[in-house]
Amino acid sequence: MATFGNLSDRLADTFRNLRTKGKLSPADVDGTVREIRRALLDADVALDVVKDFTGKVRERALGDEVNKALNPAQQVVQIVNEELIAILGGEARRINFAKKPPTIIMLAGLQGAGKTTLAGKLAKWLAKDNHTPLLVAADLQRPNAVQQLQVVGGQAGVAVYAPEPGNGVGNPVKVAKDSIKWAIDKQYDVVIVDTAGRLGVDADMMKQAADIRKAVQPDEVLFVIDAMIGQDAVATAKAFQEGVDFTGVVLTKLDGDARGGAALSVASVTGRPIIFASTGESLDDFEPFYPDRMASRILDLGDILTLIEQAQGAFDEEEAAKVAEKFRTDTFTLEDFLGQMQQLRGAGSIKKMIGMLPGMGAMKEQLNNFDEREIVRTEAIIQSMTKAERQNPKLLNGSRRVRIARGSGMTVTDVNQLVQRFEQAAKMMKTVARGGVPNIPGMGPVPGAGFGGGRGKQLPAKKKGSKSGNPAKRAVENAALASGEKVGAGSAETAPKGSGFGLGGRAGLPEGAPSEQELETLQKFLRR
0.70 exceeded by the pTM? Predict the structure, then answer.
């Protein structure tokens, strides 16, 4: 969510300073509210909205709900989150479908806001939900607007009604009106009318949009606004509300790097909800707008619900169950690995998905440096293998790896690293599937990871034993515990002498302790 990146960083710094205080004084609250006000103004949020927002935050932060809280700083973050949800529109709203099809949706907005591309995104999103949308080319003013809509419709796999060539030729009001009859005859249940825009608000554009609205009587009029437009967003929204009126807002270009805070003002100033958000150039970069989830993203609290929804839409549950069984039985192959990666790519941008996790704002640099093309390169390596090699990586000798590297345009080192990572991942997932704790290379066991290895399966009770860092001493103390002896401070005297790591004699060591040869090997390894 690059558009709100600067605002998110500023708010995170403010709350980080707040968390160092055990109790908040009025001065602390005033200082926090002052920083929030500056952050919002720097992000181009409208002044009236900022005043109202910070006033409510201050009033609640000085109230009993914070003074009596066990963690006052966390309570202030919660208050800011709730007020941020309120200025974003409160509860999410979906499209109001007509009781008798077709449902008519009219798009309005300035030229360059992304209406035509958004029409294709909306149509594709509706088609996934088992609707049959029809795109209507009623923008006959902008050069090649009709052709662009036809291309977008083809990419989305939906029909386009375009009886006029455009480029200044044709009557947009007649086209929009005729499209309704066409949709009824052809049994399309949603009609999306793409209207003309201008570089700025003018009387001609408003009249044409108002005439189209009057002619088709739409169920929804969506105002499409560029999230990077700046303070002019509020003035433009007010002008469209007065000239045409609209029932909902769609934010586009939320993947941009501008301040974008003016988009936060639109719902509050116009009283109209934000219904959709466009988050990229692909036709799949489109999602319903949830004020609570957007507020969580801005405050770097994550958006787990959207992440789960994207994963559920991309992954087949039956296939996932088969893969889990393959992990458990140690039959997971590179063929399965390839299928999993392709499903992961189908879920959308991996960088964006990782960014939905809580606290990822602090890892912005690492996320920016993440190269999603690595997955494409990995696919190329696996696809250059024969089916037998994918099923059994042990067949990959030196000559085969050279052939695979040449076929994929990669190096032998890349092939070796892929095979190594695959073996590590398969071993780790096998451990998880059997109820163990994964041992991540370079990190050891994952702390606090209690995985259940099956229905009703209980993890073994934690064994009591010595916690000494000295291996020899630990072995002696464990042996003493096993025989029922009390292990105390004096037991250190019984520890066998050895090297600086406590590696040495075998007297008193329990069954299964390392041999002298194994200890010598360990010492050599530690000296590297």
Answer: no
Cα–Cα distance between 450 and 292 in angstroms, integer?
30
DSSP for residue 113:
S
- State how far the Cα of 399 lies from the Cα of 385, in Å rounded to an integer: 12
Q: If DSSP codes are grouped into helix, strand and coil, which group holds residue 80?
A: helix
Give the DSSP letter of residue 492: G
Task: Give the rounded distance of the alpha carbon of 28 from its chain centre.
Answer: 33
The token pair at 460 is 């073994």
Element holding 104 (H helix, E strand): strand 103-108
Q: What is the DSSP string of 10-42?
A: HHHHHHHHHTT-SS--HHHHHHHHHHHHHHHHH
Tokens of 450: 């209690």
83-117 burial code (b ≥16 CB/10 A, e <16): bbbbbbbeebbebebeeebbbbbbbbbbbebbbbb
DSSP secondary structure letter of residue 89: T
CA distances for 200 relative to 113, 206, 217, 236, 300, angstroms: 11, 11, 25, 8, 35
Neighbours of 486 (CB within 10 A): 8
Quote the DSSP letter at residue 506.
-
Distance CA 243, CA 201 (A): 10
Classify 134 as helix, strand or coil: strand
Residuewise pLDDT in 10s, the chain (528 residues):
454 666 777 777 777 777 766 677 788 888 888 888 888 888 778 888 888 888 988 888 887 766 666 577 777 888 888 888 888 888 888 898 999 989 999 999 888 888 999 999 999 999 998 999 999 999 998 899 999 999 999 999 999 999 998 888 889 999 999 999 999 999 999 999 999 887 777 788 888 889 999 999 999 999 998 877 767 778 888 888 888 889 999 988 877 655 667 667 888 888 888 899 888 888 888 888 888 877 777 776 655 555 555 555 555 666 666 766 776 666 778 887 777 777 766 655 655 665 555 555 555 555 566 666 777 888 889 889 998 988 888 888 989 999 999 998 989 998 998 888 888 777 776 666 566 555 544 444 544 444 344 444 444 444 556 666 666 666 666 666 665 555 454 444 444 443 333 334 444 444 445 556 655 555 555 454
Under 8 Å CB-to-CB from 162, ≥6 apart: which residues? 136, 137, 146, 149, 150
